[in-house]
Every structure is written in structure tokens, then in C-alpha cells.
Design brief:
The protein is an alpha/beta fold. It contains 13 helices and seven strands. The protein folds into three domains: 76 residues, Multidrug-efflux Transporter Regulator, Chain: A, Domain 2 (Orthogonal Bundle); 83 residues, Methyltransferase, Methionine Synthase (B12-binding Domains), Chain A, domain 1, CATH 1.10.1240.10; 126 residues, Rossmann fold (3-Layer(aba) Sandwich).
Length: 305
């Protein structure tokens, strides 16, 4: 077993980047010592070496993580530099070309740390269609592309935070513009320690635009905070975002407490969500696309209404 410092030396991947790949893509899941320090085995080292080889060959970090997770590449070969090609994508349509241009413009503005250009790029994205048309296809992929740019060394952490904050402000404005029903039937937020809130805020906005009363709690909400708000509102649904593998333990605590409270509808959503967060108990595991997830919850509320 190797510490993160030793793993970095063996793979040539900087320790902060190893942690970022773990948080963002779940491509590796190291064990932990009793003190909480990460430990990496030989198999995990080979995965990190494969990620580095693919990224060096021009893949984005998200593409590389997806291909490795899906078993589409031979890790042993890729780890030593025998890099295969990605499956050939279909010829780009006019729509996908425009989508890529919108995303590229936003990322380029973020890389230049230009607030004016970033806002202009977001204006163009949001003007390209309805919220439901752009959120899953353009806006959230554009935000995710910031992580790829950072992984490639083109974007600083500060510039990424600035661009992500700009996206959050736009989502908050759309959420507010959707109106405020007199009673919040659903509470949406993230568990303690979880701070990547763009997906949860986008979901809350999509649900509110479907006419559902939503209270959005935001990020890093304690179990006590969840229970207090949900019980005070007598909310009929609680939706917990589970974005990173490290969020799962805290999310399980929230789900368990809400189940004990007797909340009629409990749902989890996000790339790290799963039914195993409440073994033996019925919860909703929402689909990935924000619009589809909002539809599932809205229908569930309608059936329970």
C-alpha cells in the first residue's frame, strides 16, 4: 500500500490532481487509515497511470474516467502507454457543433479570467433555448468542462471558482424567477461536507419550474438542519444530492434521519447516488438528467397528493 505522496511519485500525477480525479470522477477509491489518510494499492496505481496516459494522449479527464469505468480500455496496456483511440463519434450535426461552440466559448472566457466574457458566454447559452432545453445539454456540461480544463493545467483554481460562481448566480436568478408557491412541498440540498451544488440548484430550479413548491437549502447542511427544516415545513419530499463518493456517508445519515422522521418521499440524486444509501428501505434514485429527475419527483408528489 502506498501513501498519496508515494502514489504521486510512482504515477507522475500530482497529489492534488489525484484527489481531484477521485472527487470529480470517482475513478479511484483508496482505502483509509484510522487517521483518515489515503492508501493506494497496485491496482489503483495502474488506474492512475492509465488516466495519466490517456490525458497525455489528448483525452479529457472525464472521457478517460468514463472509459476506464466502463471497461472500454485495457488498463494494463494503457498504463504503460499503449493508448487506444476513443470510439469514433458520429459526424457532428449543426446542433452539436453549436453546443460545442457555446461550451468552448464559456471555458475560454473562464481560462482568461475575464468576467465580462464569462457573463457574455452565459448570456449566449441561456438565450439559446428554454431552461429545460439548455440545462442538461449545455449549461451543466459547460460547468463540468471547467474541471477538465483545470485537470489539463489551463485553468487555475481561482478562475474555476469564479466561473462556477457565475453559473450559480444565473441558476439562482432562474430559480427566483420561477416564483414562490405558498407552501414548500419539497426540500432540496446537500449533506454535510458536500459543496458542489450546481447540480442540486439546477434540479431545484427545474422542479420549481414544474410548479412544485421548493425550499433550496444549499450545500453543507447538517443532519439536524435537514430534520429541523423538513419537520417544520411538513415537507412531502426531501431530495438529497450525492455528488462525490466522499458524500455518501453523510448522505446516508441524512436519508436515515428523514426515513425515521416519516417523510413520504425521499430521493437521492447525483453521480454518487445509489439505492444502497438506504438498504432495505424504499427511496427514489433519480436519473442523471436534471429535467428527467424533476419530472420523476413531480409525478411522485402528484401521486401522493
Amino acid at each position: 500500500m502506498y501513501t498519496i505522496k508515494e502514489a504521486s511519485a510512482r504515477t507522475g500525477v500530482a497529489a492534488p490532481l489525484i484527489r481531484a480525479w477521485e472527487r470529480r470522477y470517482g475513478v479511484v477509491r483508496p482505502t483509509r487509515t484510522l487517521a483518515g489518510y489515503r492508501l493506494y494499492d497496485d491496482a489503483t496505481i495502474r488506474v492512475l497511470q492509465a488516466m495519466r496516459s490517456l490525458v497525455d494522449a489528448g483525452w479529457t479527464a472525464s472521457e478517460a474516467a468514463r472509459a476506464i469505468g466502463a471497461g472500454e480500455v485495457a488498463i494494463e496496456d494503457v498504463a504503460v502507454g499503449l493508448t487506444p483511440s476513443l470510439p469514433r463519434p458520429p459526424a457532428p450535426s449543426t446542433t452539436s457543433t453549436r453546443r460545442d461552440r457555446l461550451i468552448d466559448r464559456f471555458v475560454a472566457a473562464a481560462e482568461a479570467a475575464s468576467a465580462a466574457d464569462t457573463e457574455a458566454a452565459l448570456d449566449e447559452i441561456l438565450a439559446s433555448g428554454s431552461f429545460e432545453a439548455v440545462i442538461d445539454d449545455v449549461l451543466l456540461p459547460a460547468a463540468a468542462a471547467l474541471g477538465d480544463s483545470w485537470s489539463a493545467g489551463r485553468l487555475s483554481v481561482a478562475a474555476e471558482h469564479a466561473a462556477s460562481a457565475a453559473v450559480a448566480r444565473r441558476l439562482a436568478a432562474v430559480f427566483q424567477a420561477a416564483g414562490a408557491p405558498t407552501r414548500a412541498a419539497a426540500v432540496v440540498g446537500l449533506p454535510s461536507g458536500s459543496r458542489h451544488e450546481l447540480g442540486a440548484l439546477a434540479f431545484a430550479t427545474a422542479l420549481r419550474r414544474r410548479g412544485v413548491g421548493v425550499l433550496y437549502l444549499g450545500s453543507d447542511v447538517t443532519v439536524h438542519g435537514w430534520v429541523d427544516v423538513v419537520s417544520r415545513l411538513r415537507a412531502r419530499a426531501a431530495i438529497v444530492g450525492v455528488v462525490m463518493p466522499d458524500d455518501r456517508a453523510a448522505a446516508l445519515e441524512v436519508v436515515t434521519a428523514l426515513r425515521d422522521l416519516g417523510v413520504p418521499i425521499i430521493a437521492v440524486g447525483g453521480v454518487a447516488a445509489g439505492a444502497d444509501l438506504a438498504p432495505g428501505h424504499e427511496i427514489l434514485v433519480l436519473p442523471g438528467p436534471v429535467v428527467e429527475a424533476a419530472e420523476v419527483v413531480a409525478r411522485s408528489l402528484g401521486r401522493r397528493g
